[in-house]
Design goal:
The structure holds two protein chains of two kinds. By secondary structure, chain A is mainly alpha-helical. Chain A contains 13 helices and no strands. Chain A folds into two domains: 49 residues, no CATH class; 202 residues, Orthogonal Bundle (MetI-like fold). Chain B is of the alpha+beta class. A six-stranded mixed beta sheet of chain B has the order 6-7-8-3-9-10, sandwiched between helices. The two termini of chain B are 38 Å apart. Classes of the chains: A mainly alpha, B alpha+beta. Chains A and B meet through α8 and α9 of A and β6 and α2 of B.
């Protein structure tokens, strides 16, 4: 067998560039979609930087002639959120006070429960897991009235403890799902080795399982931070009038029926409120996508 | 070293009976291999000895203790897993000292015992590394070291070499054998690799369907398998099986097949052969040879393929209606062309004959 000479000169060089009609259409679609989502944000930012005069007279798309942070200051310190006019400051602090325990508690509980269900496999564990999963599919609104009665009977209605309890209860199914599925993907042999080495329930959790849980803890924290921060309904009902979260106060600013509508203040207040989840999404996009891929579609 | 005794063991997963009424006695210092295909219950049995699987009935004794319901850590065992199961966030040293720390041994003693195991397994330069920074062979050595520091009476191995490449597997196999000689501890070793079983074991328990089919020395298992399953499972390339029926004529015993008779008069029958009994003849590839010796019997082979395997060669073909392989020295010549008929010789006293229905050795 004799073979033809291969490797002609014209086959050398970099990979040929490819920009055909399909690609072009795809990029156009993506650009259009991005614009559709960025456009409202643009309007919000520009409006918040104008004074009311400019809002009334100019085009809503235009960049303000004299950008000022007056509206932002007003939203933060002096806008009326119901009866008081102290801006969103108080709501921000309330939201933080609700947020920290409402994230720490469900994540910790979810991790321990998921660990117990995946590795120790107690009798009835599957039933518990199944029951909690059903909880994922029942609309929250169904629970509200009974929960109000239950919490008020144990003195947890209308305070931080109550709202934290509510957030914890409703986060358990998704937290358990996340952690159980993650731990189910870890090798069982690791747990067996730790048992032979003499580790008990808490030792194995603390020394072996927890150090491997960083990725799923990050996902769980992101989900829970955004979920709790964006919550409006539970905060309104369970937190009590002294502890209203930022979202409820924002609603009061935007929906106030009295006086002139201060669009610039409303825009600034909205951006301020959305800032925390926005920052979380911005710095954790990769992890967040991973969390969604891990079976967490609700959040 | 301790003996391990298992009596009437039952293990069920839900309604599925994985192991039923199993008895097994392992002598102190013995290296016992549980050999079987995946799903045969060998790992389940090992996990039961380790205390990682609950038993439904029966007893397990290690040394003088009934450990049937004891916690894994209280059984005096060390275990090595197929997946190494090293704690990923700990260094090699921390991995090895974890168990001793849990048992609240003094720090100085832990250091001393870890150092001893490390030097035994040449792990000294790796002590500060994490498992992710080790190669497969190193990881498995660390896993063995972690079991060793426990100074256990019984060591359990769950397919420890299956994740390694062929060369490393051979190296570690030799190391394990040396280790067993050095420690003199009782070892139970689960594998599906017959080479590991044949080379390492004092005795092999061949398992299928949760039942020990044969418990014997490697030689005995290889030479005198008790049934067709054991015969087919052990040996590579596998044993050749030829179906037929026994024919008794004038003091001679023949295997009558669809294509001619094979003389098996010299076979040491355990019971008197009956005329017309349906049987399977088992011939190992090395039992068929091109040159006869005293008392050997001829068989005609129609050649299909010749495969050279380095040290020896494999001749495949058809013999008495069955597809067989023959192991030959690689310098054997001339290589017969496909379709050629050659005469092979076998020693009927070394073959195996199984009942066609019960598949037990006759």
């Amino acid at each position: 067998m004799s073979s033809r000479p291969l490797f002609p000169a014209h086959a050398e060089g970099p990979r040929p560039a490819r920009l055909n009609l399909g690609r072009l259409a795809l990029y156009l679609c993506l650009i259009a979609a991005a614009a559709a989502f960025l456009f409202p944000l643009w309007v919000m930012v520009t409006t918040s930087l104008k004074d009311m005069e400019a809002v009334r007279s100019g085009s809503i798309f235009g960049w303000p002639a004299q950008p000022s942070l007056e509206a932002w200051k007003s939203a933060w310190t002096s806008a009326c959120t119901g009866l008081t006019c102290e801006g969103l400051r108080g709501g921000f602090v309330n939201s933080l006070l609700i947020l920290v325990p409402s994230v720490a508690l469900p994540v910790a509980l979810g991790a321990v429960t998921g660990y117990a269900l995946s590795f120790w496999r107690p009798r009835g564990g599957k039933l518990l897991f199944g029951g909690l999963l059903i909880g994922l599919f029942i609309p929250y609104q169904v629970f509200i009235y009974p929960l109000v009665r239950i919490l008020s009977s144990v003195g947890l209605y209308g305070n931080i403890g109550g709202i934290v309890a509510v957030h914890t209860i409703f986060a358990m199914p998704i937290m358990l799902l996340l952690f159980r599925n993650y731990y189910a993907s870890l090798p069982m042999d690791l747990f067996k080795a730790a048992r032979i080495d003499g580790g008990g329930f808490w030792t194995i959790f603390r020394r072996v399982v927890l150090p491997m849980s960083a990725p799923i803890i990050v996902v769980a924290v992101i989900l829970q931070v955004t979920g709790v921060w964006n919550d409006f309904l539970f905060g309104l009902i369970f937190a009590g009038s002294d502890n209203l979260p930022m979202t409820v106060q924002l609603n009061n600013i935007v929906n106030s029926a009295r006086g002139a509508q201060e669009y610039n203040v409303q825009m600034a207040a909205t951006i301020l409120t959305a800032l925390v989840p926005l920052i979380v999404y911005f710095f954790s996009g990769r992890w967040f996508v991973r969390g969604i891929a891990a079976g967490a579609v609700k959040g | 070293m301790s003996q391990v005794a298992i009596k009437n063991l039952d293990i069920t997963f839900g309604s599925n009976r994985v192991i039923q009424n199993l008895d097994l006695q392992i002598e102190p210092g013995e290296f016992l291999v549980l050999l079987g295909a995946s799903g045969c219950g060998k790992s389940t049995l090992l996990n039961a000895v380790a205390g990682l699987t609950d038993v439904a009935g029966g007893q397990i004794w290690i040394g003088e203790n009934n450990v049937t319901w004891a916690e894994p850590k209280d059984r005096g065992i060390g275990m090595v897993f197929q997946s190494y199961a090293l704690y990923p966030r700990m260094t090699v040293e921390q991995n090895m000292s974890f168990g001793l720390e849990m048992a609240r041994h003094p720090k100085a003693e832990i250091r001393e015992r870890v150092a001893r195991a490390a030097s035994m397994l040449q792990l000294k330069p790796l002590m500060q590394r994490r498992p992710a920074e080790l190669s497969g062979g190193q990881r498995q050595r660390v896993a063995i070291g972690r079991a060793l520091v426990r100074d256990a009476d019984v060591y359990l191995f769950d397919e420890p070499l299956s994740n390694l490449d062929a060369k490393l597997r051979t190296e570690l196999r030799v190391e394990l054998k040396k280790l067993h000689a050095e420690l003199g501890a009782t070892m139970i070793y689960v594998t599906h690799d017959q080479v590991e079983a044949l080379t390492l074991a004092n005795r092999i328990a061949v398992m299928q369907g949760g039942v020990i089919q044969q418990l014997a020395s490697p030689d005995e298992i290889y030479r005198r398998p008790v049934n067709r399953f054991v015969a087919g499972f052990v040996g590579s390339p596998g044993m050749n099986f030829i179906e037929g029926e026994l024919q008794l004529r004038d003091g001679k015993v023949d295997l009558k097949t669809a294509r001619g008779n094979l003389d098996v008069t010299r076979y040491p029958f355990a019971e008197r052969p009956e005329d017309g009994r349906k049987v399977t003849l088992g011939l190992r590839p090395e039992h068929l040879q091109p040159e006869p010796e005293e008392g050997w019997c001829p068989a005609s082979l129609t050649v299909s393929v010749y495969e050279s395997m380095g040290a020896d060669a494999l001749l495949c073909g058809e013999l008495s209606g069955a597809t067989v392989s023959v192991k030959l020295p690689s310098d054997w010549s001339p290589i017969p062309p496909a379709g050629a008929r050659v005469t092979m010789w076998y020693d009927a006293s070394k073959v195996s004959i199984f009942d066609a229905v019960t598949e037990s050795r006759l």
